[in-house]
Design a protein that fits this description.
By secondary structure, the chain is mainly alpha-helical. Helix content is about 45%, strand content about 5%. It has 5 helices and 2 strands.
């Protein structure tokens, strides 16, 4: 500690020190002081606007409002998609089929195997389909799921274009012969012929 009566000492240098660091007692820059005061005024205004007078939505209320708007948009898109189901056909576009394959591997393979041979879910490669054999039946099964057998309802999880892409990919699995497939589960309803053969 230096002598407080040292005539050569800088008048702005305070007497205390920590680890050899001394503090200057100088005035803060005006721009910094104004910025600090503006921040305080903003905080007071924010507190009053959102928390005292409730003039604006808090984050939770804003999330709920925007979520309702998003759900309404999604419901319109799904309704339009479901109304167009009877007219849809499997895509042959390689890019759509690749996209459908990626969706299948991510969402469907845990129950149907990566090759479609079936695990918990049924075999998707044979000619026997439990919930309908044509493409529209497959789309409806994906959209509505089979909750009684543990298949998720993919409505609202996948976009309509993703549902069409994955159903188109699944359609290409028909007639393939994966090793050790799950046995047929519905002998009474053979599938429609595969358009890819």
């Amino acid at each position: 500690m230096s002598d407080p009566y040292d005539p050569f000492k800088d008048p702005l240098l305070l007497d205390h020190e920590a680890d050899g660091i001394r503090e200057l007692d100088n005035t803060l820059p005006r721009w910094w002081v104004w910025l600090f005061n503006i921040c305080i005024l903003f905080a007071v205004g924010y507190l009053g606007y959102y928390h005292v007078f409730h003039l604006g939505d808090l984050q939770a209320a804003q999330y709920v409002r925007e979520n309702k708007q998003g759900e309404a948009v999604k419901a319109v898109a799904l309704k339009s998609f479901e109304e167009s189901l009877p007219t849809l056909t499997p895509s042959k576009d390689p890019a759509i089929l690749d996209h459908g394959h990626a969706i299948f591997l991510r969402n469907c393979a845990p129950c149907h195997r990566a090759d479609g041979g079936g695990l918990v879910g049924p075999n998707l490669c044979d000619d026997y389909w439990i919930h309908g054999s044509n493409f529209v039946d497959n789309l409806r099964t994906i959209v509505n799921g089979v909750p009684g057998k543990g298949m998720l309802t993919w409505r609202g999880v996948l976009k309509p274009s993703e549902i069409h892409a994955v159903a188109s990919f699944i359609y290409t699995l028909r007639g393939t012969h994966p090793p050790n497939p799950k046995p047929p589960e519905n002998q009474s309803q053979p599938a429609a012929p595969n358009i890819y053969e």
